[in-house]
Amino acid sequence: MSQPPKDTADEKDSLHPRNRHRGRYDFAQLTQSVPELGSFVAVNAHGDASIDFANPDAVKVLNKALLKQFYGIQLWDIPAGYLAPPIPGRADYVHYLADLLGSVNDGVVVTGKRIRVLDVGVGANCIYPIIGHHEYGWRFIGTDVDPVAIRVAKQIVASNSGLTGAVELRLQPSSTNIFIGVTKPKEVFDLTMCNPPFHGSQAEAEASTRRKEQNLGTNKGPAPTPNFGGKPGELWYPGGEATFLWRLAEESALFRDTCFWFTALVSKKETLPGLYKSLQKLGAAEVRTINMAQGQKVSRIVAWTYLTAEQQQAWREKRWLAQ
């Protein structure tokens, strides 16, 4: 049987310099934070303490421990089958967004509640608001089409006093709209962020999970189980990543004056040309691509704004520099 990927410092050296998860997990400390993690920890074939990353239950409990130890989250849980994402990679997205703001603020990262972030597809896990508020003090609006995800995310916020007043959750009533229907008139955002559904259908998502199971040697039956979990809306969207991002770009143009930076993770490099073409047609004033990597996994953030250099400066002076 092949072994899951080794949890090594080298694999995490490519993470953002401010990422708290560079280097190996300290399972002794994490187990002190959440004792139930201990039942999942064992010495792997490399002689290191680790968990079975192919086991969604183990991944969820690891997330509980990471969120408690590094982000002060005392109570966090999600229903079975919902996405329990790899926290180091999620933290990277947040840190690169902080750098993005800093790049138009004389290199100084903008912190505090004056920064408002819209998280499209917040999920039951509420990971991005948790990390973004803890690290930078930003305020978040999280949206999702799944009422259960919104209910669970609200429970997480209500159960952790550190999130009080920092995170608002809104149900997106339309399965096709992204910004329309969840934003209020004249509501302003400094950032939007989104981790789009990767696959184009449930069958495609299941085939991908099956390939992962075969690579890890963990395929045990006819029904594949994603190691990080995930409901259909979290894993697939009709037309896949490219179609979702096209729709996101189209709707972003409707809010060109009320958001500074629109951003999204793009997993497939084949998606990039079409997205760039759409943004050019829509009149984006600036488009940036920020490369990210964790071990062998390579992804990128595409960020765009409709604000000219003069408008960017005016935004900065009004929202970030004004006391």
From TrEMBL:
Keywords: Cytoplasm, Methyltransferase, rRNA processing, S-adenosyl-L-methionine, Transferase. GO terms for molecular function: methyltransferase activity. Residues 7-16 have a biased composition (Basic and acidic residues). Signal peptide: none annotated. It is an enzyme of class 2 (transferase). GO terms for biological process: methylation. It comes from the Bacteria. It catalyses: adenosine(1618) in 23S rRNA + S-adenosyl-L-methionine = N(6)-methyladenosine(1618) in 23S rRNA + S-adenosyl-L-homocysteine + H(+). It is found in: Cytoplasm. Its EC number is 2.1.1.181. Pfam families: Methyltransf_10. Residues 1-22, 200-229 are annotated as: Disordered. Belongs to the methyltransferase superfamily. METTL16/RlmF family. Specifically methylates the adenine in position 1618 of 23S rRNA. This is Ribosomal RNA large subunit methyltransferase F. The lineage of its organism: Bacteria, Pseudomonadati, Bacteroidota, Cytophagia, Cytophagales. The gene is rlmF.
